[in-house]
């Protein structure tokens, strides 16, 4: 194979990996904050994609312009899910881990069912966008603009998150709450408020991913499942709760997936990622950057 | 009362309560065995067979997930292995499904042991996600395995009704009795193990993994035993399912939804309890089947709404499972 074709695979894998990282980071954030795995994360992504689709239909504006609105809606969704479900799941005295798993699984099925009922199982896509259909030719390596835009947004989001967590009061409250949930109450931080904002932020982050993805990917009620497992693998590979880990793991997953297609049939492209993930986990049971 | 006589009387109370549980179980099994005499509707019969099958599967899952606290979300792998082993041995080699059930069970148990070795080092969510991923790898491999029919799967030939080939086209009652038998066996296995030393170790692992870990290698062995027994019966259930539906493909036996369907009845009914999985299956399976046939036409999604909503509500309001509503002391009894 030519160098050019190889570079093409690497570049495509890198861009996809940045989007995987963006999808995964909200999941990792919530986990780091309160030890809860949201099994409805893929459905959050799917809702954000439909929200983008619906808003584009209603306003005929470009999806890029509508992103802030989608992200705001997702923030509200995240806070509501925390207030309506997670808060109660965390109070369970018996089998708390299982209650969280199955409460969020139940939510995932519910959202999927509602999406199927209201939007039908049909595949949709957003046509006629500014970015759609355009490709950048980089010395023989072709990169579609929507994916470049997605990669850029992902990097910007990670930079923003870094700033938010290290430089703002909310970030400090977030960090303090992850360190010691009991002690923060003593210094006057309302734990529930931090958790609610954390869920809002987590959902907003996957909302950004959904809005980006909606520009170049098909939208249907099952689309969450396609990306959710990759997101769980990304988070576990990077280490639950590690923001930086999600970025590195996302890029690794994207690259490995792209490289796997060079050796295995396309239908087995995930096998490379899954095997690598298991391999890493057996050496480092808490992921690459997880706290041991 | 002296200490030793107190111990003796609590021992005899324990034996009496065990005997009572056993008698109750036999009465329940006997009553269930009468059901085919009352139900003639083929559709209802199918729902009941699936209910018993998933009661058995969930009981098997409960050994590892409920008593041992290792929340596996990848049991579809073992279910699929059982279904494929039974189908391949029967369709390609003419070996009776009974042999296939046994072979599938043994293969699944060996795979569970091989996977348990690295996986039991993983804690909590890391363990659960690893099990999902391993099952997903299995699904992808079967999708691409030409010998096993790849995505097209394996069709069982049409043959006359016979216990030898486990094929009953006209009267579904034999399937019902097979499923009941499987459920009774898994119940009895659970019943006899949970009060043995393994059972105590499992609960020790579940209640405090770190403390149990300090007891070292015995804990690891007891976890491995739970995984192997759990996988064995899950695969037997998978093999039976293949004989029952007579056609399998990767998505119809190894899809993630089967992993959920095995865990959910136990969670809804009451994890780590003797009757929780059965009660959960009794509610969940008919509900899933009936909502699918009455509301799920053309993928309307309403069945998922009801199903998902119910799972959410029960797990939030009854974290100890539905069984705890009927018998509040259930949890205490298990850890006493």
Describe the structure.
The complex is a heterodimer of chains A (292) and B (336). Chain A contains 11 helices and 2 strands. Chain A has 292 residues and is mainly alpha-helical. Chain A has a single domain, classed as ABC transporter involved in vitamin B12 uptake, BtuC. In chain A, helix 2 crosses helix 8, helix 6 crosses helix 8 and helix 10 packs across helix 11. Chain B has 336 residues and is mostly helical. The C terminus of chain B is likely disordered. At the A-B interface, helix 3, helix 4, helix 9 and helix 11 of A face helix 6, helix 12 and helix 14 of B.
Q: Percent of residues of chain B in helical segments?
A: over 70%
Tell me the structural class of chain B.
mainly alpha
Number of domains of chain A: 1
Poorly predicted regions of chain A: none
Distance between the termini of chain B: 22 Å
Helical region count of chain B? Answer: 16
Please give the share of residues in helix of chain A: over 70%
Largest sheet of chain A: 2 strands, antiparallel
Number of E-type strands of chain B? 2
Summing up helix and strand content along with how strands pair, one would put the structural category of chain A as mainly alpha
Mean pLDDT of chain B: 85
Task: Name the beta content range of chain B.
Answer: under 5%
Report the principal-axis shape of chain A. Answer: globular
Transmembrane segments (chain A): 6-32, 44-61, 67-89, 101-119, 145-165, 194-219, 225-255, 262-283
Organism (chain A): Afipia massiliensis
Subcellular location (chain A): Cell membrane
GO molecular function, one term (chain A): transmembrane transporter activity
